[in-house]
Amino acid sequence: MTNIEQNTSYSPTGNNDSSDRAREVENWNIEQLMHNADQHGVDISDHHLDVIHFLRDYYVENGWPKKTHELTRLLDKKFKHIGGKRYLHQLFPQGPLTQGAQLAGLPALYNVVDRSFGTAH
């Protein structure tokens, strides 16, 4: 990994290899998701699962971006055809990055503070 790549993504747990990140999150399951969703007051649908699987795949493959707005833009683009940011916020009222990552069993993103979308700009 080059220095520039180290500056653009990270793993809060120090796992900088995709296979290490995959092992890190492999114990997550749908039962945990449903339990955590109940605590968050979220009724999980296939639409939620689409976002959660996207976040999990992204984290395993890339780690979290240091600039979380990059992931915000990527999510908006990915789900633009069904409403983008508004759609995501309806699914995850505490923010698609913050709440989505929690429900997906992923570590918190770096510098996520804006609860309206779950990112810092």
SSE arrangement:
Elements: H1 3-8, E1 9-10, H2 18-25, H3 30-40, H4 46-62, E2 64-65, H5 68-78, H6 84-91, H7 98-103
Antiparallel strand pairs: 1-2
Helix pairs in contact: 2-4
Brief description of this entry?
This protein has 121 residues and is mainly alpha-helical.
Q: Can you describe what's shown?
A:
This protein is mainly α and 121 residues long. It has one domain (14-103). It is built from 7 helices and 2 strands. Strands 1-2 form a two-stranded antiparallel sheet. The longest helix has 17 residues, at 46-62.
What letter string, H or E per element, gives the SSE order? HEHHHEHHH
Secondary-structure class: mainly alpha
Q: In percent, how much strand structure appears in the residues? A: under 5%
**Spatial strand arrangement across the major sheet:** 1-2
Shape: globular
Cα-atom radius of gyration: 14 Å
- Total discrete domains: 1
Q: Largest beta sheet, briefly?
A: 2 strands, antiparallel
In round numbers, the mean pLDDT is: 84
